[in-house]
Amino acid sequence: MKKLLYGISAMLLLLNFSCVSDEDTTEEETLSNNPVTGTVFGRTFTVNPDGGKASNILSNGVEGVYIYLTATSVGCGLEPETFEYPVIIFAPRAIGTHTTNTSILFKDLESDDFVSAAGQITVEIISVGDTVVGRVLAPALFYDNHINGRFEVPYCN
């Protein structure tokens, strides 16, 4: 009987130490150097190397840049009103990593659905010239919409 009790106690002890909580195993996501990929309204999204553009905006006294990203090839000639972009990012027009004064909009191209959020994303602007080069991290906080990666888009005035 003692052997049975020792065996059960040892099994319970092993089970207790083998349980790990989610808090112990989660890792913080970091900005990727790979091209922007993610999920937009349940569909895999990968930005086209020629799939985007950037333009100036003055918002609440902050000189900013809108970054339009898409999976198809576009150029500066197409206005945002005439072409639908599944991802639109706002960030300050300054080199550096920004977590404030940022926003993102995810749009479902098959419907009129969209979700947007201010803050809660990280945008790193690496350079601003004829192109805007940067990285973006929008974790899966937005109804399963998320993206992460590097972009280089033409700067259209």
Describe the structure.
The chain is built from two helices and eleven strands. With 157 residues, it is mainly beta. The longest helix is centred in the N-terminal third of the chain and has 17 residues, at 2-18. It is globular and about 35 Å long. The termini are far apart.
**Euclidean distance between termini CA atoms:** 84 Å
How many alpha or pi helices? 2
The major β-sheet equals:
6 strands, antiparallel
Strand order of the largest sheet: 2-1-11-10-9-6
How much of the sequence lies in strands comes to over 45%
Principal-axis shape: globular
Kindly name the structural category. Answer: mainly beta
Q: Please count the beta strands (DSSP E, at least 2 residues each).
A: 11
By oligomeric state, this entry counts as single chain
Topology as a string of helices (H) and strands (E): HHEEEEEEEEEEE
Question: Could you outline the blueprint of secondary structure elements for this entry?
Answer:
Layout: H1 2-18, H2 22-25, E1 37-40, E2 43-46, E3 52-59, E4 62-69, E5 87-92, E6 96-98, E7 103-107, E8 114-118, E9 122-128, E10 131-142, E11 145-154
Antiparallel strand pairs: 1-2, 1-11, 3-4, 4-5, 5-7, 6-9, 7-8, 9-10, 10-11
